[in-house]
Amino acid sequence: MTLRLDLSTPQVFAAGYHADLAAHRATFGDFPQVPADTLLAQVQASCLDGRGGAGFSTYTKLAGTETGRKTTVIANAAEGEYLSFKDRMLLEHAPHLVLDGLLLASALVGSSRPVLYARQESMAGVAALARARGVELIQAPGTYISGEASAAARTYLQGISKPMDRTTRLNRAEPGTKNVFRAERGPILVHNVETLAQLALIARYGSDWFARKGTRLFTVHTRTGAGALVLELPHGSSTREILLKAGFTGFEIAAAPAVLTGGFSGTWVKGETLNTPLGALPGGEGSEQAIAAGTGIIYPLLQKEDPLTVAASFLNYLAAENAGQCGPCVNGLPALADAFTAATLGIPGAAAEVARLGRGVSGRGMCKHPDATARFALHTLETFTPANRPSRPPRVLQNS
């Protein structure tokens, strides 16, 4: 896989490629000294959403987490979805901005335990920088489920990179009936590294600046020999605008059967929805019409590809990546993937079986991996009904 980083419209990446501390300071200045209440108010006004997939309010998590030295703040760069590369690009090219954000978040909740959770290949270049700033390092194994927030916390607490029980909450800002808090360890706050980089910018420039010039990162798969491209684009960018920026022509976009946005818990986009903004907008205005950006993955189908067949391969991957902690994961997801594959072949009753299994595993797993997988399967079937699915592959464009 060839990876490229586009710096034509940078904010997070404004210090350039492989920015060292000198380049970072020359671009962004010294570490921002902002009173906690002032910064928290700026984060609230910015409506900064989490960039790890769930899109949860950053302000709500920061304001709702109990303060104290025993509180742990984890910067999550595990990037469990294999189609996503934005977080490793951040650690490679803007590590100091990420670390600034981590230390700012730690200061906001009074934490003395900042932690960076990342894959080995992402950790190598940033380890010395993190240690120099008092940040503890925890290695993520690179599995799909290891990127989930409670898996990051469980790795830190127990060395097990699997999600916690769905009833467990890491802090009081989260839903749940059981607390992870212990006498020796306090609450845990987990933020994606892009979220923290954006927090570092808001601390420097404020929420008004963020509304005007804030950005979002996307991993765009060109589906050619060029590999994947990480783009930084203004808030409110649509799927069409993102693809055009990545070098797709209007004809290629029109010929694509659909575009998967946001990763395996995301949305299939086609037709007029290609013009709909991705992700929450600064200030919140118009966000209800936007499509969730999820993990920022943009995966266009080639003209010759059948959407259901591609989705079946993704579902088989998700079934194989199950947490192995309960029946809905171990038995339900492989059965769901098999039924979906049968549906792609037109086997009578298979689509109904997908719906039955999807309802059966949702809400019943130890963690939420079955819920997300079932949601993707059902959303795919709803999007590509027999009437919308091509009866035969259309003319194939050359793919070089």
TrEMBL record:
GO molecular function, one term: 4 iron, 4 sulfur cluster binding
Domain NADH-ubiquinone oxidoreductase 51kDa subunit iron-sulphur binding: 310-386
InterPro entries (alphabetical): Nuo51_FMN-bd (IPR011538), Nuo51_FMN-bd_sf (IPR037225), Nuop51_4Fe4S-bd (IPR019575), Nuop51_4Fe4S-bd_sf (IPR037207)
Gene3D superfamilies per record: NADH-ubiquinone oxidoreductase 51kDa subunit, NADH-ubiquinone oxidoreductase 51kDa subunit, iron-sulphur binding domain
Domain NADH-ubiquinone oxidoreductase 51kDa subunit FMN-binding: 43-199
Keywords: 4Fe-4S, Iron, Iron-sulfur, Metal-binding
SUPFAM superfamilies per UniProt: Nqo1 FMN-binding domain-like, Nqo1C-terminal domain-like
Pfam families found in the cross-reference section: Complex1_51K (PF01512), NADH_4Fe-4S (PF10589)
Family: Belongs to the complex I 51 kDa subunit family.
Name of the protein in its database record: NADH dehydrogenase
